[in-house]
Amino acid sequence: MLNNEGNVFFVGDFDDNAEQNLILPLTKEIQKQRRLRDGRIDLYINSYGGYKHLVFQLVTLVEIAKREDIVVRTIVPHIAFSAGSVLAITGTPGERYIDRDAEHLLHYGTTGSMETTPEQVERNSAIKTRDFKKILAHYNKYSDVPDLAAAMNDDSFFVPANKCIKWGLADNYMDKFDIGWDD
């Protein structure tokens, strides 16, 4: 389920509902928050993942918000798998939170295909290589995971909270998280 309550968004899986229930409301919230002196958006991410094209739309929106001096806090109370992890690491540095029992799943994603000709095999292989490089570059931009390319090749690289903080996928545990506004 994806929904929002003002500047707080609860992000589930990245599916066909994301555009209407998350991308458009987040775009409007960025426009609203940029007018405030201390704009902030909270993204609670509890996700098994989903579509790459949707998460990268959200990454672009988060980057726009940060350029507008809006603090984007990402909060992972349990799981940030696949697309959820890609979004969670994009938050404002110092404002990426994770529960002590939570984890990320880092991988490049898989695509089902039914190639029947050598040309189709070649095209699909090129797409997979391009996608792998894009995901790898994204993680390298926001974190410092050792031997990331090798670990991601397994396509099932689960990272517990303590390693998320050590490697820069998150900054703080949720027990250091202030949920209120400073009014």
What this model shows, in words?
With 183 residues, this protein is of the alpha/beta class. The two termini are 30 Å apart. Helix 1 runs parallel beside helix 2. The model has no long low-confidence stretch (mean pLDDT 88). The protein has one domain (3-176): Alpha-Beta Complex (2-enoyl-CoA Hydratase, Chain A, domain 1), CATH 3.90.226. The strands form two sheets. A six-stranded mixed beta sheet has the order 1-2-3-4-6-9. It is built from six helices and nine strands; from the N terminus they run E-E-H-E-H-E-E-H-E-E-H-H-E-H-E.
Shape: globular
Q: What proportion strand?
A: 15-25%
Q: Mind summarizing the main beta sheet?
A: 6 strands, mixed
- Spatial separation of the terminal alpha carbons: 30 Å
Number of strands: 9
> What is the chain-wise order of helices and strands?
EEHEHEEHEEHHEHE
Number of distinct helices: 6
Structural category is alpha/beta
- What is the CATH topology classification name? 2-enoyl-CoA Hydratase, Chain A, domain 1
**What is the helical fraction, as a range of percent?**
40-55%
Strand order within the widest beta sheet: 1-2-3-4-6-9
Radius of gyration: 17 Å
Overall number of domains: 1
Could you name the CATH homologous superfamily? 2-enoyl-CoA Hydratase, Chain A, domain 1
How does the SSE layout of this entry go?
Blueprint: E1 3-5, E2 8-11, H1 18-33, E3 40-45, H2 52-67, E4 71-76, E5 79-81, H3 83-88, E6 96-98, E7 103-106, H4 118-142, H5 148-153, E8 157-160, H6 161-166, E9 172-173
Parallel strand pairs: 2-3, 3-4, 4-6, 5-7, 6-9
Antiparallel strand pairs: 1-2, 7-8
Helix pairs in contact: 1-2
